[in-house]
Design brief:
The structure holds two protein chains of two kinds. By secondary structure, chain A is an all-alpha fold. In chain A, about 70% of the residues lie in helices and about 0% in strands. The radius of gyration of chain A is 17 Å and the shape is elongated. Chain B has one domain: 3-Layer(aba) Sandwich (Rossmann fold). Chain B is built from five helices and six strands. Chain B is globular, with a radius of gyration of 13 Å. Classes of the chains: A mainly alpha, B alpha/beta. At the A-B interface, α1 and α2 of A face α1 of B.
Chain lengths: ~120, ~140
């Protein structure tokens, strides 16, 4: 079972890189002052939400926290008054940089599942 | 409602989460799992599998978890099958909405897969009392 978990952790590192590329494509479309181009932002929110749930469940809690920060920052774009949208865009870009930096350097050994002591089911 | 939990229909669209949950629930928990990647698969498979428990992700493409639950409830074998939702939206109002649909509990994402079998068993037992909300450590 440990080998299965480790193989999954390795696969998830690849998944994270693909999802990061998809988020990057959305963030690249973010104008310095957000003026309501909703589609790429909505897609980025969905992707960040997905990374938050999956990475944390596969032992990458710090990546999950970075993704949570990005999701929060992107959602803020929809509720920020236009006058302060440039600041909100900067916050979103900063949150994205934190997540990207972390995913760029991710390795399977970073996952808590990689070296976890597995509980045994007495019924098996 | 059965007292013993053995068979679980699990619906989740994200492949890596599906895989880690499968390892946790079958290899650690010892449950029999019917895995569905989307709502349509669940509608086809669950009535045949006749699970003791439905474990549903909330955000699945095409048909969200609550909509799927209402469709599953139309199937005679699943009219009273207990349900647990899994979601990354764990604000109190979201949890209350899910519990108002009849959920026995809500498991927040991210979750600890190694603790998941115990979380599910706790919620299964809480159907006889308790708050029905399980949080990962």
């Amino acid at each position: 079972m440990q080998n299965e978990l480790r193989a999954l952790v390795v696969k998830h590192c690849q998944t994270l890189r693909k999802e990061a590329a998809a988020i990057a494509a959305c963030i690249d479309l973010l104008e310095p002052e957000f003026c309501g181009d909703v589609e790429p932002i909505s897609k980025a929110i969905d992707l960040a939400h997905r990374v938050k749930g999956s990475s944390g469940s596969i032992g990458f809690r710090d990546i999950s926290e970075c993704a949570r920060g990005l999701e929060f920052a992107l959602r803020a774009l929809f509720v920020t008054p236009h006058a302060t949208s440039a600041e909100a865009v900067r916050d979103a870009r900063s949150a994205w940089k934190r997540l990207k930096r972390r995913i760029d350097s991710v390795s399977p050994e970073d996952s808590s599942l990689f070296t976890a002591t597995l509980p045994k089911n007495p019924a098996l | 409602m059965k007292n013993t939990l053995k068979r679980i229909t699990y619906v989740e669209d994200e492949p890596d989460i599906r895989a880690v949950t499968e390892i946790a629930l079958t290899r650690i928990g010892g449950f029999q799992l019917d895995i569905c990647p989307d709502g349509l698969a669940a509608l086809a498979q669950a009535p045949v599998f006749e699970p003791d428990l439905l474990l549903l992700d909330v955000m699945i493409p095409g048909m969200d978890g609550p909509t799927l639950l209402s469709r599953l409830r139309e199937k005679p074998p699943l009219r009273e099958t207990p349900v647990i939702f899994m979601t990354a939206k764990v604000q109190a109002d979201e949890v209350e909405k899910l519990k108002a649909l009849g959920a026995a509990g809500v498991i927040s994402k991210p979750f600890d897969p190694l603790a998941l079998p115990d979380q599910i068993l706790q919620l299964w037992r809480s159907m006889h009392g308790g708050d029905g909300v399980a949080h990962a450590e």
